[in-house]
């Protein structure tokens, strides 16, 4: 098996590429998931959520999410290089407390979510149904809003932004993407 691939278990051949993984105690597979070191590694999936207007659901389960003070850390990214509000962007920011910022297809959310410095067992869910976007953290709805109809031709990236920056130290238990 290839250690630099995260195999798609659905059978749809959407294997993700593991970029800059060292496969050691701080970067690679663990007993509970995939550990990103927050220094230089990230995951590039072949999934494009906004290349056409379609309904989808993303469910990202994190075993751990470690925050770095005064640094934006990107958890998920699939946004436009031209206008960051088009597409999808989920990041942690330390602004008078820990929060997750969601930007998705015209809807912006800053969710306090009572996150602390090193959180465990966080589930982030983003759903698009028609013109409606819904953001949830640990099954709590933080925002529902109207989606943009603009398209973005970018792959979904985890642990960094599209150009390989703002790396995040987190352990991913699972990622599920449903496109309807």
Give an overview in words:
The strands form two sheets. An eight-stranded antiparallel beta sheet has the order 1-2-5-14-7-8-9-10, with no helix packed on it. The mean pLDDT is 81. The chain is globular and about 45 Å long. It is built from no helices and 15 strands. Helix content is 0%, strand content 53%. The protein has strands at 5-6, 16-19, 28-29, 34-37, 42-44, 56-66, 73-79, 87-94, 98-104, 107-115, 118-129, 132-137, 140-146, 157-158, 169-179. With 180 residues, it is mainly beta.
Kindly list the characteristics that best describe this protein.
about 180 residues, mainly beta, about 55% strand
Concise overview:
The protein is mainly β and 180 residues long. It has no helices and 15 strands. The strands form 2 sheets. Strands 1-2-5-14-7-8-9-10 form an 8-stranded antiparallel beta sheet, with no helix packed on it. The chain has a 7-stranded antiparallel beta sheet with strand order 3-4-15-6-11-12-13, with no helix packed on it.
């Amino acid at each position: 098996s290839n250690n630099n691939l995260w195999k798609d278990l659905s059978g749809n051949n959407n294997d993700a590429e593991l970029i800059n993984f060292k496969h050691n105690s701080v970067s690679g597979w663990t007993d509970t998931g995939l550990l990103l070191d927050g220094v230089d590694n990230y995951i590039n999936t072949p999934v494009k959520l906004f290349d056409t207007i379609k309904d989808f659901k993303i469910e990202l389960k994190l075993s751990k999410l470690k925050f770095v003070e005064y640094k934006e850390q990107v958890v998920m990214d699939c946004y436009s290089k031209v206008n960051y509000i088009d597409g999808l962007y989920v990041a942690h920011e330390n602004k008078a407390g820990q929060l997750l910022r969601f930007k998705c297809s015209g809807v912006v959310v800053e969710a306090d979510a009572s996150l602390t410095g090193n959180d465990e067992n966080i589930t982030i869910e983003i759903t698009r149904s028609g013109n409606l976007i819904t953001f949830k953290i640990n099954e709590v709805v933080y925002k529902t809003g109207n989606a943009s109809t603009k398209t973005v031709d970018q792959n979904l990236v985890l642990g960094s932004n599209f150009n390989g920056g703002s790396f995040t130290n987190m352990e991913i238990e699972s990622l599920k993407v449903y496109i309807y």
